[in-house]
Design goal:
The protein is of the alpha/beta class. The chain has helices at 22-34, 49-62, 73-84, 99-108, 120-133, 162-171, 194-198, 227-236, 238-241, 248-262, 269-285; strands at 66-70, 90-94, 111-115, 145-150, 175-179, 207-211, 221-225. Strands 1-7-6-5-4-2-3 form a seven-stranded mixed beta sheet, sandwiched between helices. The protein binds 4'-deoxy-4'-aminopyridoxal-5'-phosphate.
């Protein structure tokens, strides 16, 4: 017996996870051209034109110099954070950060300190202490201080206080890693996430991370930022070196849905969604 139910538990925010429509058709066509699996890593035989096309599009969408795509959102965090920080570095992590950020922080070997959820006094206290006292015992300065936050927190639905976090990271000369799993595509007047929502400059976020599993209805994750950062991750991230490349139809699903959101697909599907979101943003601010 087929039962009609309302799904209140998935993250198919924009409806691109459906099984019909232009996004699906584009993915099906690529499946017939390329097959489903790549069977190699990006560094070996698994670098396809589709991957490069996706990464150029993601960088343009985010307004950053460069981007890299990965086959899994969870691994994007858990495998890239250890490539960015290690022993002698300090991670300042929001208490409600996702498990993938927590695992990445633990695997990195950096010292981890937790600040109260979205609480700027708590974050500033940790930053001040880090600068004043340095590393335990030796009191040497920390090699790097990395702040980890989410755009929209997956557990609470709260929006990060991004302007304040950026001001603090600049004041204390630290780095910012922003996980936009739930905000990319779904937040801001043009769907570019938390930076777009607050009208900020994407360059003020050092590491722009996000997933393709929510608004894009697909699979995988990305990191965006300066070319130097992305070139470094291409060589040093375990998920770039040891994991198989993203599946081509999955990649096409992301490309087509992202182009819809950008209004570059020749239809007004994305435009309608953005107008609806704009209205929500206006209502939220009232
Ligand atoms: N970051 C956040 C904030 C998440 O909520 C999730 C999963 N919901 C991930 C990362 C992991 O992404 P994925 O499910 O695409 O592997």
């Amino acid at each position: 017996m087929i039962k009609n139910v309302i799904n209140m538990g998935s993250y198919n925010y924009l409806g691109y996870g459906q099984n019909t429509g232009p996004v699906n058709d584009a993915a099906a066509e690529v499946l017939s051209q390329y097959g489903a699996g790549v069977c190699s890593t990006r560094q070996e035989m698994g670098n396809l034109d589709k991957h490069e096309e996706l990464e150029r599009l993601v960088a343009r969408f985010l307004g950053v110099e460069s981007a890299m795509a990965y086959g899994m959102g969870f691994a994007t965090n858990s495998m890239n954070i250890p490539a960015l920080v290690g022993k002698g570095c300090l991670i300042l992590s929001d208490e409600l950060n996702h498990a993938s950020l927590v695992l990445g922080a633990r695997l990195s070997g950096a010292t981890i300190r937790i600040f109260k959820h979205n609480n700027m006094q708590s974050l500033e206290k940790l930053l001040k202490d880090a600068i004043v006292y340095g590393q335990p015992r030796t009191h040497r300065p920390w090699k790097k201080i990395l702040i980890l936050v989410e755009g929209i927190f997956s557990m609470e639905g709260s929006i990060v206080r991004l302007p304040e976090v950026i001001a603090l990271k600049k004041k204390y000369k630290s780095y910012l890693y922003l996980d936009e799993a739930h905000s990319i595509g779904a937040l801001g007047p043009t769907g570019r996430g938390a930076v777009d929502y607050f009208g900020l400059n994407p360059e003020d976020v050092d590491v722009m991370m996000g997933t393709f599993t929510k608004s894009f209805g697909s699979a995988g994750g990305y990191i965006g930022g300066k070319k130097e950062l992305i070139d470094y991750l291409r060589v040093h991230s375990h998920s770039a070196v040891y994991a198989t490349s993203p599946s081509p139809p999955v990649v096409q699903q992301i490309i087509t849905s992202m182009k819809c959101i950008m209004g570059e697909d020749g239809t007004t599907i994305g435009l309608g969604q953005m107008m609806a979101f704009d209205l929500l943003t206006i209502l939220e601010r009232l």
